[in-house]
Amino acid sequence: MAEKLKKRLNLGSALAFVIAGCVVLPILSITWMALSVDTSQWGHLLATVLPRYFTNSLMLMAGVGALSLTLGTSLAYLVTHLEFPGRKILQYALFLPLAVPSFVAAYAWVDVLEYAGPLQTYLRDLTGWASARDYWFPNIRSRSGAILVLSLTLYPYVYLLARAAFRELPSSGQDVARSLGLGHVRQFWRVSLPQARPAIAAGTAIVMMETLNDFGTVDYFAVQTLTTGIFSLWLESYNPGGAAQLALLAVAIVAVLLWVEKIGRRKARFNKSGRQMACIQPQPVTRGVGLLALTFCSLPIVIGFLIPLIVLVTPALSDSALWRGVGLWRAACHSVLLGGISAVLVVGLSAIMVLGLGTARPVMRKFLLTFTTLGYAFPGAVLGLGILTPLALFDNWAADLIYATFDLDPGLILTGSVAALIVAYGVRFFAIGVGATEAGLAVISTNIPLAARSLGSPPRSLFLRIYMPLMRGSLASSLVLVFVDTVKELPATLLLRPFNFDTLSTHIYGQASLENFSAAAPAALLIVTLSLGAIFLLAKAHR
Q1: Domains along the sequence of the chain with CATH
Q2: 147 or 420, which is more confident?
């Protein structure tokens, strides 16, 4: 029995080290590329584009982070603490903007707010204005517009975690606050917000990392960031070294962000007494306050989901020829294929790894699980750039070996293939699979697998007949989430996709780049439809 346990431990540890190596390898590759080239070009970058890239990236992250923090936290507090009309529906409907990719929302809002759009056309017809010189209208294609659009599609990350934290707060704190005469505003600032701070900080950090990762929105709005700079230097200036240096700067920003978030709550301590576990209940409010809360909670859904959805549906239903394009359904097949393979690999490998490390030392287990989830913290463009060099080295080694053995030249095997995309997706979204596996494992009593082992159940049978059925819900949710995130991923796909290979995301990006939004609407609608499945599972899991 001890020998079997040692063998199982060694296998799980070895697999975990392999997966951790795959996650770390792109970062090491980027570092090597950045430091091995002539650093004199930094002088040129500093004198030209780097200050603009850096400033825009920081201002976008700060703006989107602050707006998403304010919006997500306030919405979560209202739906958990106040009883108002429509609250039970709104608390789940507030997840809906997450189904709309940021770049899709950007295309939709430009279509609505541009000079030839319906809003400005209506204003000119109503007032008699003849041209843009007769009135002022805000430019949606700007840094402020990018902040607004990104915030409306990313705030659900903060809302999701803040709502879960507020719901788990003990009711005793609220009872004491009310007995001391504190109103809802002072209860929020003095009681609820400090206790929910770790969850809110984690959600805001995710939002800021997603903002740094964004390419489609900022590129369409002509806001030059580090991510657009990586694409520009790599694909337009043919300067991989400069692109790697920008990628390394983006990695440094993410590392500082995570460090600041960790330091910010280092001394915080949160405890619950066993006698205070009754959760808070929404309190009734006056009719006026209820209507204000209903309006405030409805606005993000209307602006972030319903209006973009209407903009997508209108051209898609008015012209059936848009659905008959061969490129659309080929891109849809590619997205479904890539999403399915990536989801199965991510969830399967993460489950095997987490279970394989179940008997490992806590320090080693924590270290490996932390390393394997780092990929989610790095922008897709950075991972795409970092994966290219290791794949090229592997292809050259494999080609030399095959040529020496069989006198055949296979050419490139992984570079420029679908396999490169799957590797990038796996590294980036592995954290979802690990999180779901740990969540499912936490609710299984340790007595069940111990009893199975005592009855002679082998590891394979234990995995298939005990763990998998009991963790089925968590693993199914992570499968859907990885699938949808893969379908929505744009930067890594643009860098690594094979020639003449489109997914739904790249199809939308290509059509929108040609200002042909009508042709992009069906693909965007398909992504939104697929994403709604993930939103349904999220809402079901957080009832």
Answers
A1: 34-264+272-319 (1.10.3720.10), 330-543 (1.10.3720.10)
A2: 147
